[in-house]
Design a protein that fits this description.
Elements: H1 14-26, E1 33-36, E2 44-48, E3 57-61, H2 78-82, E4 87-91, H3 103-118, E5 129-134, H4 136-146, E6 161-167, H5 191-197, H6 200-203, E7 212-217, H7 222-237, E8 242-247, H8 252-257, H9 266-279
Parallel strand pairs: 3-4, 3-5, 5-6, 6-7, 7-8
Antiparallel strand pairs: 1-2, 2-4
Amino acid sequence: MKLDHYPPQEPLSPLGAAYQDRILKLGEGVAGHEAAYGDDPYQTLTVFRPESPSGDVLVFFHGGGWTSGYKEWMYFMAPALTARGVTLVSAGYRLAPTRVFPTGLDDAADAVAWVWRNIASHGGDPKRIFVGGHSAGGHYAALLAVNGEWRKPRALPDDVLRGCLPVSGVYRFGPGSGLSVRPRFLGVGDEERTDAAASPLHRLDGAVSAPFLIAYGGRDFPHLVTQAQQMEAALRAAGVPVQVQILEGCDHFEASVACGEHPSGWPALAAAWMRQTAASPHPVDTRRN
């Protein structure tokens, strides 16, 4: 799978390079419909249409620490999900440090907007869109799900997202988060304000948040396990439906690989959860009652 048409990005660590080699090999021969939602090569997405679409659509964002990664990384997920009727959209986004926060988040929002406007022609239901992602991609998905400020400028309905499926995601920045991403991702300036703006835990609005299916590896990075537990507690406190799946025996990278397991595992759970969630009434805005 060729990736040389993209602008340069930060080099991968040895673990990251091994992960990339593994998932690209798993995704060999998996093809979909590629489209652009912007002018940059990273502002592209690929749609994988099932033979028998259920209507459920999963827009999934790759990981890579916000500084590396490609939409092609997630192609390996398509066979197990499309076999269950799920339309998978693997979306790219511009990377740090060339583009710091919130550029990648804005790209993720634009990708969702493209899907909402175009997915019906690919067998998906624009009223059954879910977002997910691994690691940094899970962070972007969670931010989109917990706060609706990005929807109005793009003329999207408040209920455009039916649910969120982050895998080994990031939910909090700042002291005690276990993360050191400034200035490469969050830039410089008002650190406290930026940390809060980039943290799904601090942006959570229970009135608009979509339901969550949180997954992480049983041997994941300890700070991400802690963050997932904190996010689960915050969602429950806000009255947001949440389910947690621990991917037993998986480290951070193996948790991503588990997203393509066939015929069982995370894809089966995710497809069933999306089907059930899509059939449920949209969450009620309790501020109006």
